[in-house]
Amino acid sequence: MARQNANVVVIDGKAVPIEGERNLLEIIRKVGIDLPTFCYHSDLSVYGACRLCLVEVKDRGILGACSTPPEPGMEIRIHTKELREIRKIAVELLLANHDQSCPTCFRNGACKLQEIARKLGVSQVRFAPVREPVAVDVSSPSLVRDPNKCVLCGDCVRMCSEIQGIGAIGFAYRGHKTAVLPAFGKGLADVECVNCGQCSSVCPTGALTPKSEVEEVWNLLADPEVTVVAQIAPAVRVGIGECFNTPAGDPTMGRIVAAMKTIGFDQVYDTTFAADLTVIEEAEEFLARKAAGEKLPQFTSCCPGWVQFAEQYYPELLPNLSSCRSPQQMFGSLVKEMLPGQMGVSRQKLAVVSVMPCTAKKFEARRPEFVKDGAPDVDCVLTTQELARMIEQAGLRFNDLEPQSRDMPFGFGTGAGVIFGASGGVTEAVLRYAAEKVTGQTLYQTDFTEVRGDSGLREVTLEVGGATLRLAVVHGLANARVVAEKVKAGQCDYDLIEVMACPGGCVGGAGQPVNLDLAVRKRRALGLYKSDKGRQLHKAQDNIFVNQCYATFLGGVGGHKAHELLHTAYGSRRRISDETLVLLGDTREPRLAVRVCLGTSCHLRGAQDILNGLLAHIVDQGLENAVVVKASFCHEACASGPNVEIGDERISRASLETVLAALDRHLKNPLPPTAGAGRECGQGCGCGKA
């Protein structure tokens, strides 16, 4: 037996050294014991909800291993009869209230609940359910939320709040009614969700999953009148193999092409072609801004989750976003302009399918900015997981397929386009272009390893052609918020900021095969850098097919045609749509309407205090039958908050005193129903309200 003062813990009689582990769970797993848990992730806070990692500590009783720090001399038992029974009961209770349509579940075969039930030997469920089935939320274009499969582990809540800094979902109610819900019980599409899907990547069951478009794609392929072409994003090639038991990071592009051709796609292209286009357009935009000293820092705009985040929380920074479309949308708009003439088909009969590592790309493809003549530039978006499912449905042995080449010209891309899939890759690709452009000399050493790495926020200063460039590379939207706040406050002097919503960049996208091992994400990124090294060309400006496209179709970098097809603009977006919550009064009766904005900006300026004081005043004065008070969540006038609307009057920069005075005035002198029609609010927001 180890001495009490030795820097070890004793696990089932075996002394194990303490080497900086934060909790007992980390020490137990270090010695090769896979103690089950739903709610523990190394990059999230300790929650301790599932109670599966319970251990018995001598003289202390039964404790959660994930939330108990190690102390020298601790004696721990893991597999006592009592502990085994507690774990089995915990899983049975979860299964009792769980939708058990496992064979048809998206996560079937990759479900943590299935795995743990099997490992613990749960062969029956001895408890009756206490919850009634509820409706499945399919409002989002990117995700499906099935509360009937939720085990209340809280992983999604902590991911959304801690890593992404959003908090679009959270716990509601108490006891057996406890549920994980979007704000006010709304659908995911109606709250501030940015569609990144990271919640689904940590969900251990099928409660949150990417929204499948597999059937839509099968239907397109089955239509003899439709020509179906595909583009494959860089990160897909180093991720999909994991679905077929190949090592993470191994590039499988040739087999992906072979599988898709066998399935029935007419042409299979590579999004790296459009990534090279993005490099050239974005780098030229950056150099022009740098020369003029305007609208800096420039934020990248390749990530749709980040773009939506900026639209929701930082509309004042939208002029700093690059006007470039993402590679997915550049590809869609370009091929739908070029291919109909080349292939002899109409635009309406040409379907573009994207294969992406990202669920937010599904939302992006449906943005109205990317629809022309009633048809989207990109018709369907498959995640890496969905393509793997299609390959399985087709009965193909993926690892036995003979590799095939991509179709030209949109199947050719340089190494600069390939590294887009890793955090820092966009910045490095732009530097490869900008360095050559600024110096006028051929760049032979193309690696800018300074911008590579794993940390969520990296700051780099480089000298390029006598000019100093200050760069920031960010992944995870909580980190993006930190940087955005600094930019707003004028506390940084960055020139270029790359933002990716998903940890690690696109290689860590929510559409990739689910694997919570951080080493897997690193191997995927390494696979992209190796693929770059294996190519003959590493700079976007060396892509001969891109250069031909400019010469014969786009008419030059930054030209009118290029701007029309490759650029866009973004605008402020409401945090919560259809966002009124009745707090006092009856909406069925004609009463004076009072709306208090509780959006983030107004809340920070004191809107909650105004609302509390207003409600107290109404009750004290017995005015409950005269007014209806609602909380709303964006009046699109954030800079002039707090904002309160009473009848058809908006009160900006409101205080409790000005609101009560306006309320008294309206109650004494009510305006006719049509009063104020056609007048502007004076805030320049275009709302048309008085």
Written overview of the protein:
The protein has 690 residues and is an alpha/beta fold. 33% of the residues lie in helices and 15% in strands. It contains 21 helices and 24 strands. The strands form seven sheets. A five-stranded mixed sheet has the order 2-1-5-3-4, covered by helices on one side. Strands 20-22-21-23-24 form a five-stranded mixed sheet, with helices on one face. β3 (54-57) and β4 (61-64) form a beta hairpin. α8 (271-292) crosses α14. It is globular and about 70 Å long. The protein starts with 7 loop residues before the first strand and ends in a 22-residue tail after the last helix. The model is unreliable at 672-690 (pLDDT under 50).
Topology readout:
Elements: E1 8-11, E2 14-17, H1 24-30, E3 54-57, E4 61-64, E5 75-77, H2 81-96, H3 112-119, E6 143-145, H4 155-163, E7 169-172, E8 179-182, H5 198-202, E9 208-210, H6 214-222, E10 227-232, H7 253-263, E11 267-270, H8 271-292, E12 298-299, H9 304-313, H10 327-343, E13 350-356, H11 360-365, E14 371-372, E15 375-376, E16 380-383, H12 384-393, H13 415-418, H14 425-439, E17 457-464, E18 467-475, H15 477-489, E19 496-500, H16 518-533, H17 544-554, H18 560-566, E20 580-584, E21 592-597, H19 600-604, H20 607-620, E22 627-632, E23 644-646, E24 649-651, H21 656-668
